[in-house]
Design goal:
The protein is an alpha/beta fold. The chain has 3 domains: 4-144, Rossmann fold (3-Layer(aba) Sandwich), CATH 3.40.50.980; 171-380, ANL, N-terminal domain (Rossmann fold, 3-Layer(aba) Sandwich); 384-477, ANL, C-terminal domain (GMP Synthetase, Chain A, domain 3). Helix content is 31%, strand content 25%. The chain contains 16 helices and 25 strands. The strands form 5 sheets. Strands 2-1-10-9-11-12-13-14-15 form a 9-stranded mixed β-sheet. A 7-stranded mixed β-sheet has the order 6-5-3-4-7-8-18. Helix 2 (27-45) crosses helix 3. It is globular, with a radius of gyration of 22 Å. The N and C termini lie far apart (53 Å). Converts 2-succinylbenzoate (OSB) to 2-succinylbenzoyl-CoA (OSB-CoA). Pfam families: AMP-binding, AMP-binding_C. It catalyses: 2-succinylbenzoate + ATP + CoA = 2-succinylbenzoyl-CoA + AMP + diphosphate. Residues 6-345 form the AMP-dependent synthetase/ligase domain.
């Protein structure tokens, strides 16, 4: 395929490509800025191919760096700045990189990053340092090879064992195509990006911009008051959210609504609970629930807003380029699609274990179809509890307690038990301490007795990944 940014700069040179902090760049201007940075980056990565780490923030500098490295044909290892130095060092070692680019703004957020060079034995470059380097003639890839790896992204690691996921240009392209078929594509579309660029939820918005010729409104981090104002004042049509972001926005939803062009929220991370769904329906605020993963470069299943109430708890039906089936024996969700990645970095064995003999990708999620062929995700295969011989999925319990009035967040993990093997424990966030009897009685109305948590723990917050998923293994540590 022809270089995506080159193509848009030729087709729609004056169309807005990016808005950040009230400054905007057209596709042509973004192209020119990228050429300059391309020439400077050659001092660090050479002029073609190779691999480098990037600690990106949601800033113009990080956005531009991703584009420039992509043009150089460099494999970009997108690192999560929220991780500990130990976790980052482990990923850097797996990726076999000796240089990491660091967005300057991250030094203020994570003081530990100043020690990364020494701890991980790598050369760290601030993006401001790159700007001061000598400029060479830009060496820009004229074409993107379908099978070439362009980004490497470590899985969220809800189990604590992430994999480096190899994402190709083909994967990103077909992910964008599937999204366009699902959500439609309009001439005035603008996507508000408040999710991290180092995560597939944020990076996929960048890729859609290049493929659709669509502007992105980029903000540094999610803050509900700021986002509400932007959704009112800017001509945003789409925004990606996780359930916690959506709930915080609903609490501030203005009487006059958002701007007249706003079309919908794309919800990932988890299915919406019925209470929140009914609130969205009452406000006539479309929410498209979706299911996807790093290994599929974003959404592969989605639920239309018109079907949401009749299929509460479902993530929808497979998008057009996607084939999906449920393994009859294991009940695991399996996928075949052009957006499924070709492998894991340095771990061929782990990836091959996820591919069936006939070429389907095993997601690690357990699910089922209803009679109308809507997909329901019951939970992660590795997170299922077996208590007294009964299979229990934390997601089901969490959804049941989502409607408890005084609880803002709720999560479940399993702990060993001498009598039952394992039992579920509930962790909740609330302004007040709630009696255990009250929580048990509430559970009895919605769950089988063996699914009701045996203990309840009040916490200030839940440990989450960049995509908003709960790190259950960290919750379990609190009980040791």
């Amino acid at each position: 395929m022809e270089n995506w940014l080159n193509k848009q700069a030729a087709l729609v040179p004056d169309k807005t490509a990016l808005i950040f902090k009230d400054q905007s760049w057209s596709f042509q201007q973004l192209r020119e800025e990228t050429w300059v940075l391309n020439g400077k980056l050659q001092n660090v990565v050479g002029d073609l191919h190779g691999r480098i780490g990037l600690l990106a923030a949601n800033t113009f500098d990080s956005y531009l760096t991703i584009l420039a490295l992509q043009d150089l044909g460099v494999e970009i290892v997108l690192l999560n700045f929220r991780l500990s130095l130990f976790e980052l060092s482990k990923q850097i070692n797996i990726a076999k990189i000796n240089q990491v680019l660091v967005d300057d703004s991250l030094q203020d957020r994570n003081k530990e990053l100043g020690k990364l060079a020494k701890v991980a034995d790598v050369k760290c470059w601030k993006l401001s340092q790159i700007k001061r380097l000598a400029e060479h003639e830009p060496n820009v890839a004229k074409e993107y090879e379908d099978k070439r790896v362009t980004t490497i992204m470590f899985t969220s690691g809800t189990t604590g064992n992430p994999h480096g996921v190899l994402q190709t240009f083909k994967n990103h392209f077909f992910s964008a195509v599937g999204s366009a078929i699902n959500l439609g594509l309009q001439a005035n579309d603008m996507w508000l990006c408040a999710v991290p660029l180092f995560h597939i939820s944020g990076l996929s918005i960048m890729m859609r911009s290049l493929i659709y010729g669509m502007p992105v409104l980029l903000i540094e981090h999610f803050e509900e008051k700021q986002v509400t104002r932007l959704l009112q004042e800017k001509q945003v049509t789409l925004m990606s959210v996780v359930p916690q972001m959506l709930k915080r926005l609903l609490a501030l939803f203005p009487v006059e609504g958002y701007n007249q062009n706003f079309r919908c929220f794309l919800l990932g991370g988890a299915a919406i609970d019925e209470k929140t769904l009914r609130q969205c329906i009452a406000l006539n605020l479309p929410v498209i629930q979706s299911y996807g993963m790093t290994e599929t470069c974003s959404q592969v299943v989605a639920l239309s807003f018109s079907d949401a109430l009749s299929a509460v708890g479902s993530v929808g039906k497979p998008l057009f380029p996607v084939q999906l089936r449920i393994n009859e024996r294991t009940k695991e969700i399996e996928i075949k699609a052009p957006s499924v990645v070709p492998g894991y970095l340095g771990n061929t064995v782990a990836y091959e274990k996820k591919i069936t003999k006939d070429g389907w990708f095993k997601t690690g999620d357990i699910g089922h179809y209803d009679k109308a062929k809507f997909l329901f995700v019951e939970g992660r295969k590795g997170e299922m509890l077996i208590s007294g011989g009964e299979n229990i999925f934390p997601d089901e319990i969490e959804n049941a307690y989502a409607g408890f009035p005084a609880i803002t967040e709720f999560a479940v993990c399993g702990v060993p038990d001498d009598k039952w093997g394992e039992v579920p424990v509930g962790f909740y966030v609330s302004r007040q301490i709630i009696s255990e009897n009250e929580l048990i009685e509430y559970g009895k109305k919605k769950l089988a007795h063996f699914k009701i948590p045996k203990y309840f723990v009040r916490v200030e917050s839940l440990p989450r990944t960049a995509s908003g998923k709960v790190k259950r293994y960290e919750l379990a540590k609190k009980l040791r």
